[in-house]
Amino acid sequence: MSGFLARRLGQSLVLLVLVSMVGFAILHLAPGGPMSQFASGSDMTQEDLDRIAEQLGLNRPLPVQYAEWFWRMLQGDWGRSYRDGEAVLNVIGSHLGATLQLMLTATLLAIIIGVVIGTLGAIRRHSIFDTLATVGAMIALSIPTFWFGLVAIYVFSVWLDWLPSGNRFTPGDGSPLDLLRHLILPAMVLALVETAIWSRFMRSSMLDVVNQDYIRTARAKGVPEARILLRHAFRNAALPMITVLGLQLPTLLGGALVTETVFTWPGMGRLFLDSISYRDYPVVMGILMFSATLVLLGSLLADLLHAVADPRIRLG
Amino acid sequence: MVDFRIDRRAVLGLGAAAALAPCTGQAQPRPPERPRGQVIVGLSQEPTVFNPLMPGIEVDQGVWWNLFSPLWYTDPEGNLVPDLAREVPTLDNGGISTDGLTWTVKLRQGATWHDGTPFTAEDVKFTLELINNPSFRARSRIGHQLVRDIRVTAPDEITWRMEAAYAPYLSILSLTFMVPRHLLSGVDPNTATFNSAPVGTGPFRWGARQPGDNITLTASPAYHGNGPFLERVVFKYIPDLTVLYTQFRTGQVDHTSIQGISPPFVREARTLRGRVIHVNPSASIEHIAPNLEFGPLADKAVRQALYMAVNKRALIDAIYYGLPAPTESFLPRQSWAFNADLPAHKHDPAAANALLDQAGWRRGAGGVREKNGVKLEFTNSTTTGNPVREQAQQLLMQDWRGIGATMRVQNMPAAVIWGEFWQQSRFQSVMVGVNFTLGADPDVTPRFHSSAIGAKGGRGQNNYQFVNAEVDGLLVQGATQFNQAQRRATYQRIQALVREELAILPLFQSAAVEGVKEGLNGYRPNQNTSSNCWNIREWFWTA
């Protein structure tokens, strides 16, 4: 196990360095740059702009800029945002809470509802319920999230006036009830799409399992159906879900750009979009490294959980 | 025993109520005796710069107006009103010497920074010196770079010498916010803690910021002026204009500022109950910016023909719902120097075709005109993701195709277009809205003087590369005149010359549509301040 861990961590570090190199190069070679934000909000001359570029180190050769950024990052200094001068880690930290709150709620809802629908669909294959669930999942997957979001806002905020149309809380309030009211719509919209994904995965996984010999044997031995389902079928069908969950980790913290924009939710997705628009290199690189680390950690975690849940797998 | 003491805030409040109340004969709402309630201002761009001397856009400036104070400001009618100064220096009161070179400013006594430190002339001296510090990322040094020999003659009086007489400096100072010496001296002003936790002398104090979401300011009890009457101001960042309008409609936002309400929503917004919609003429002039050194656009006849071929009325009505007003000038109609006698644009494609024929531009293959091997083709760029401008480009393309000119759309993200592409005149033509004035001053030296061409090493934003000796002379003359009547004549002539040469192809004076919730009093649009959040100190809710 320890050998496996060391090998995977080593591979991950190499991958992270490669990702940082490619990301840094693409970002800096893209047209435009952060100087336009200084130019557009000022009467600066080219001389002034050149001086700022010098102060920020933007006029040095790209490999030198990369080496300096990488060395500082290793020391825990991820740089400062060009937009507001805040430390990159603080900027990421200040958006992480909002994203976690939204994504965890949506994912938990999606897993619970999706697993139940998927399981029921598999054990009642071709029933009306299964057909409706399949059609519903296809619709949820086909229609863009922003459309769902706008319809939800129109129905629940504009028309019925039941829920706020966006934001994380009401300024000056922020009570748990207020937070909950603001969370319902975006979490519901995000969960809708995710539920469709989870239900499809669960259904096909469950279908694989319920046709296995050991399930048939259990039935032949007279084991009650509920026990077969919960003890034998569900546990085995849930194994592939661990991989899916592991791969969902970066999505969980990376944010949902569209939903965050439609519902004015100040999370990581919007931060990423804003930072790209302003060519805020330090923040974009910070988010990139953060996301890449999560992808690698998620995949590692999935492997480890798989081994724990399935005694047939031995890591080494 | 009856207490006859009069509360300062109550007196000021009455003054504000009287000033704000139009003579309708009805009882006007009065501001509360103590700050009460909050207002949520919706913005489609996020304020991120809190040092008011650093490069910032309109939304940043909206926050600055509430945290900081200038020496004086320009009110909606264009008058300079003292703020941290006791009076606005003029030739008449001796604040400006007769040669325009020596300025003396008497400061208000008793004003304090939000941390309780008294505001003094040393802060003014520090502010002016900081702006001129070459290692500081100052937003603008226009005018300030002429300041020499700053002397504090008393804690409430400061004097300096100007290297050359410069009348627009009064207006520039109306947009220059004072910063505290005790917090910024001895530290790197580019990265000081102050920049993320600002301390000012304005009506509101820094409260909290949730990056990417909102900024909260709270009422300053020690504010030296009128108000504030609100406990809290929340600047809420809502990046999508449709979502911003929806939140205004559902009541989550009390005021939509800057980009406000998009033209397609205006008709519906006017029918909303409990909402008041204001269509405010802005100082921004929407125009086609030609690069005057680029091929066909260098030819004046081409520019005249292109201008004649534009169906301006159709563009304004079809794309902008008739909200903005067509214009021929780079100055807003409300400016004291506006020239109303400029030749009016006439949509006349036949005359445009004739003019091009006369100028030797012959139709070639595909109907595109050519002259000496140069095709009448050019690109037009604007910020990507601006659907209104993108539609306007389609109409222009169609209008110009009719006279044998080909325009190709080459839009770019803001981070690309407004950098070197714009600053160094690498464009062929751009569709842009620009506020040409310096505060309320009509001086356009940074925009049209030949020494202001960045691509030629100049200081300024004459990105059109406009060169005209008479305009250069008039700009120098106008900047040194302190008599408004004389200045008006100078700037009216400049407008005539710019219109004659078509250094820009003016389309219209923009209109900003902003919404305010009913019951919120004190909102006074002011095109001289770049943000209508300039006077939130006077806002209050009807009890």
Describe the structure.
The complex is a heterodimer of chains A (316) and B (543). Chain A has 316 residues and is an all-alpha fold. Chain A has helices at 2-29, 35-40, 46-56, 62-74, 88-123, 128-142, 145-159, 176-210, 213-220, 225-254, 257-262, 268-277, 281-309. Chain A contains 13 helices and no strands. Chain A is globular and about 85 Å long. The termini of chain A are close together. Chain B is α+β, with helices and mostly antiparallel strands. In chain B, strands 1, 7, 8, 9, 10, 11, 12, 18 and 19 form a nine-stranded mixed β-sheet that branches. Chain B has a three-stranded antiparallel β-sheet with strand order 4-6-5, with helices on one face. A three-stranded antiparallel β-sheet of chain B has the order 13-14-15, with no helix packed on it. The two termini of chain B are 29 Å apart. Mean pLDDT of chain B is 92; it is low at 1-24. At the A-B interface, helix 2, helix 3, helix 5, helix 7 and helix 12 of A face strand 9, helix 6 and helix 12 of B.
Which helices and strands appear, and what pairs or packs with what?
The complex is a heterodimer of chains A (316) and B (543).
Chain A (H helix, E strand, L loop, with lengths): L1 H28 L5 H6 L5 H11 L5 H13 L13 H36 L4 H15 L2 H15 L16 H35 L2 H8 L4 H30 L2 H6 L5 H10 L3 H29 L7
Helix pairs in contact in A: 1-13, 5-6, 5-8, 5-10, 5-13, 6-8, 7-8, 8-10, 9-10, 10-13, 12-13
Chain B lengths: L7 H13 L17 E6 L14 H10 L4 E3 L5 E3 L19 E5 L14 H11 L15 E8 L2 E6 L6 H5 L7 H4 L19 E7 L3 E6 L12 E6 L3 H9 L5 E2 L6 H7 L5 E16 L9 H10 L2 H9 L4 E2 L22 H10 L3 E2 L5 E3 L2 E2 L1 E4 L6 H15 L4 E4 L4 H10 L5 E6 L10 H4 L20 H12 L3 H18 L3 E13 L2 E2 L18 E2 L2
Parallel strand pairs in B: 1-9, 1-10, 16-17
Antiparallel strand pairs in B: 2-3, 4-6, 5-6, 7-8, 8-9, 10-19, 11-18, 11-19, 12-19, 13-14, 14-15, 20-21
Helix pairs in contact in B: 8-10, 14-15
